[in-house]
Specification:
Strand content: under 5%
Oligomer: single chain
Radius of gyration: 32 Å
Order of helices and strands: H
Number of helices: 1
Distance between the termini: 106 Å
Number of strands: 0
Length: about 80
């Protein structure tokens, strides 16, 4: 009976050690994730003007294309 308790206690100690290791890994991953989120937010802030510029250029290109189509139709009609 005493042997069963010793084995059980040994298994519980092993599980406890594994839980401590998992907890340490979780803490490291949390720190890494927080740093990743911070860097991602900084990058998004820096890219906002670029995204506005790209949208503006796309609008200009669409306007030029529309004017070309309208001029083509006007020339074909005349």
């Amino acid at each position: 009976m005493d042997d069963k308790f010793q084995r059980l206690e040994s298994k519980l100690d092993t599980l406890s050690d594994k839980l401590v290791d998992i907890d340490k890994t979780l803490v490291r991953n949390t720190v890494s994730l927080e740093d990743h989120v911070r860097r991602t937010n900084l990058l998004e802030e820096k890219l906002a003007p670029v995204e506005r510029h790209v949208a503006m250029i796309q609008g200009i290109v669409k306007f030029i294309a529309l004017m070309g189509v309208l001029l083509g139709i006007a020339k074909a009609v005349l």
